[in-house]
Design a protein that fits this description.
By secondary structure, the protein is an alpha/beta fold. About 40% of the residues lie in helices and about 20% in strands. Strands 1-2-4-3-5 form a five-stranded mixed β-sheet, with helices on both faces.
Length: about 230
């Protein structure tokens, strides 16, 4: 978590400055988010799934409950939030967008990850971990009093498990001007897992891992890392 926060602080301070007029920048130390805070978020997402048929998939009540829970945390922290709806496969999906007040709105640094699970499970590894990580980073911005030069925006995407549907809908909804204001986007997917494994890139024709996802390679370690428990 500290590495993620350090990346945010660095990007917020440095990216977007012209080299010609760049001045040495002294970076503030990134706060270290306790793993227990992320684990508490994951427990909450698990509870939501357990109360809603065992998943948090697109079009299912567990997904909307997840959106509402994350939104409540951000609203309480002072973020400006909005829920964007879209339709896919006859069901309504939702993106959650949260802006931190202040910063240059013509120079947006955006962090995001998908909040939905597959229908076969609660999606705690994929992508509860990424969703909880960026939630805790957002809350750390508030708690630390961080005042970035750039405007910070956070997003939790819907229907990613159906093919990047929510994020694509968001991008297509923006005007050309609004798109140009987003200078950097950082995506966080499966940032933690209880299964130790080696990162690997899927190969054309590789067999799905045990999660049933065609993006997995056929190695045992990659299947373990991509478990959708």
């Amino acid at each position: 978590m500290k590495a993620l926060l350090t990346a945010l602080v660095t990007a917020g301070a440095l990216v977007g400055s012209g080299l010609a007029d760049a001045q040495p920048v002294r970076l503030a130390a990134a706060p270290d988010i306790p793993v227990s805070a992320v684990q508490a978020d994951l427990n909450q997402l698990q509870s939501i799934a357990s109360a809603n048929g065992g998943n948090r998939a697109h079009g299912r009540p567990g997904y909307l409950a997840s959106v509402n829970w994350v939104k409540s945390k951000l609203d309480a922290a002072g973020f400006t939030t909005r829920v964007q709806s879209f339709s896919r496969n006859g069901a309504t999906g939702y993106n959650l967008i949260a802006d931190w007040p202040g910063g240059d709105t013509n120079d947006v640094l955006m962090l995001g990850g998908h909040l939905d699970s597959v229908s076969a499970g609660p999606g705690i590894n994929d992508n509860g971990t990424g969703s909880a990580s960026i939630l805790e980073v957002a809350l750390a911005v508030k708690n630390s009093g961080f005042q970035p030069r750039r405007h910070l925006r956070f997003a939790w995407w819907g229907a990613e498990e159906l093919g990047l549907v929510g994020s694509t809908h968001y991008v297509n909804s923006l005007s050309t001007t609004d798109r140009s204001r987003i200078k950097t986007y950082l995506n966080f997917d499966m940032t933690g897992s209880p299964n130790r494994g080696t990162s690997s890139t899927a190969r054309p024709g590789s067999r799905p891992g045990r999660c049933g996802c065609s993006r997995c390679c056929s190695s045992t370690s990659a299947r373990s890392a991509c478990s959708r428990s």
